[in-house]
Amino acid sequence: MTLSSEQIERYSRHIILQEVGLKGQQALLSGSVLIVGAGGLGSPAALYLAAAGVGTIGIIDFDRVELSNLQRQVIHTTEDVDKLKAESAAATIKAINPDVKVRVYSQRLTADNAVDLISEYDFVIDGTDNFPTKFLINDACYFADTTYSHAGILRFQGQTITVNPGKSACLRCLFPAPPPKDAVPTCSQAGVLGVLGGVVGTFQATEAIKYLIGEGELLYNRLLTYDASLMRTHAIKVQPNTDCPICGSKPTITTLQEEEQVACDIKNSVGATNA
User: Fold this and answer.
1) CA–CA separation, 11 and 202 (whole Å)
2) C-alpha angle with apex 50: 46 to 56, nearest 5 degrees?
């Protein structure tokens, strides 16, 4: 791939960076990332991936922009209220960088379409706000053999881990199944610090970029937690679980299935939601 003079100028700060260079920028322009959820996490991830020049970005979200979203979902504006989030996000991405091809999926991710959709991309970012979809993404990425970034935020805490299916710990290695219904507060009840999505969502974008250019150490087998109230991060070492129901030695999940819908995500600093 030959870069135009305009592209060389646009991506000049990447190109002069030894760890990226021209080859790395070309890899970004040839790469593809699917973002599931154009909300608190997906918004900043999409903005930075677009600015970085990731060639194809898929946005899947069937929801519409609400006024209460704007406190943290920075890819949308007041004028976007009531618009489909996927379409609103796509318009912002194109405004940032016309180089990017945006694929819009204003639909639910389901057991019927997840593997096919995910298989079309190099990397997946989980920016969702509910347990069933998070577990669905984990399982679909395993069956599609696609690396992905899981993350969640709630209150002042966030976390993220990158999963290399079959080679590193997955979500079910840590939590074999979603918690019982009503076991945790809903996001609207618990609240979330608006800027938290920007911090953790940018972590996810960073992982995607590193993966595409083949540079740096990804968050495989490391759960990175972030506490905004203390301004503190902590990396927890984890290992693949031989008893994992999907990637363990004796898997019990052999086909893609959807869990029962639960309103929020994992309690406190482990497995929080993007609200």
Assistant:
1) 18
2) 95
Distance between CA atoms of 226 and 128, rounded to whole angstroms? 18
Alpha-carbon span 112 to 36, nearest angstrom = 15
**Residues 208/45, Cβ–Cβ less than 8 Å:** yes
Main-chain dihedrals φ then ψ at residue 35, nearest 5 degrees: -105, 120
Helix (H, G, I), strand (E, B) or coil at 262: coil
Q: Which of 187, 244, 247, 264 is catalytic?
A: 187
Q: What's the whole-model pTM score?
A: 0.93
In a 13 Å sphere around the CA of 164, the CA atoms on its Cβ side amount to 11
CB–CB of 205/45 below 8 Å? yes
Full set of structural domains in the chain with CATH: 12-237 (3.40.50.720)
| 173 tagged catalytic | no
- Residues 48-97 have pLDDT tens digits of 999 999 999 999 999 999 999 999 999 999 999 999 999 999 999 999 99
